[in-house]
Amino acid sequence: MTSQAMTSRWIDIPADAGSFKAYVSEPAGPARGAVVVIQEIFGVNEGVRGKADWLAGEGFLAIAPDLFWRLEPGIQLTDKTEAEWAKAFDYMNRFDGAKGVEDIVRTIDHARAKEGQAKVGVVGYCLGGFLAYMTACHTSADASVGYYGVSIDTKLDDAKSMKKPLMLHIAGKDQFVKPDAQERIKAGLSGNPLVTLHTYAEQDHAFTRVGGAHYDAPAAELADARTVAFFKQHLA
User: In total, how many domains does the chain have?
Assistant: First the structure.
């Protein structure tokens, strides 16, 4: 999944009521920029860390913050059992999205101030895809990418505040983002010159989650290639 060597470490990022952990994956050479990797509902698990390692392999400094830390630090679930799915949905339902965006901002600030990266993008999946959209609308992130983000259609007015480019990967058969919601997203965002939309007509939710029920290698490779090109354009 990676194209060059990388190293990883865990760091602590200060917050309003303590601090939270973040997984950092570093490229072998000078970074092209930094990318904040925004988790799904399963925490900063092996899959999310794998996304960070992939981006490091493409030459970016990648940082995956633990956004569920206020609920329980260090959550790492899989999508393999009903019990874990139940826990994941419970965390999602109790999660404060506004606080999550604040923590993403703290991570962006850390990448600039402490990691020495002038430009910082974000990429998110599922819940993280929604948060990537909100980050594009309300923060100083230099470029944002969302994969199969949920509930974006409920926040389309927020795009009026967008100042930097956004790319969204939409799964045409997404069980969590129904066709009418997808049409609202396209109608609301397609005229925005900062927004690039890609639809994968035959794919279901989480089609890039390696090992997941809906993983599709060709579609994932296409989406990921588009993401890397997008970040190279806007972060280099």
Answer: 1
Answer for the pair 99, 69: CB distance below 8 angstroms, yes or no. Answer: no
Edge-to-edge strand ranges of the sheet holding 143-147? 6-15, 18-27, 61-65, 34-38, 120-125, 143-147, 166-171, 195-200
Catalytic residue, from 79, 103, 142, 174: name it: 174
In a domain, 126, yes or no: yes
**Amino acid (one-letter) located at 207:** F
pLDDT of residue 2: 44
Active site residue 205: yes
* Residue 23, helix vs strand vs coil: strand
Question: What are the tens digits of pLDDT across the range 193-214?
Answer: 999 999 999 999 999 999 999 9
Q: For residue 214, how many C-alpha atoms fall within 13 Å in the half-sphere facing its CB?
A: 16
Q: Which of 207, 204, 168, 163 is CA-nearest to residue 184?
A: 168
Report the predicted TM-score, pTM, of the whole model to 2 decimal places. 0.96
In CATH, what number is assigned to the domain containing residue 225? 3.40.50.1820
In a domain, 1, yes or no: no
Within-domain flag for 59: yes
Catalytic residue among 205, 214, 216, 224: 205
What number is the average pLDDT over the span 161-171? 98
CB distance 41 to 71 below 8 Å: no
Interacting residues of 116 by C-beta distance below 8 A, sequence separation 6+: none
Domain of residue 80 covers 6-235
d(CA 42, CA 175): 18
Q: What is the mean predicted confidence (pLDDT) over 101-127? A: 98
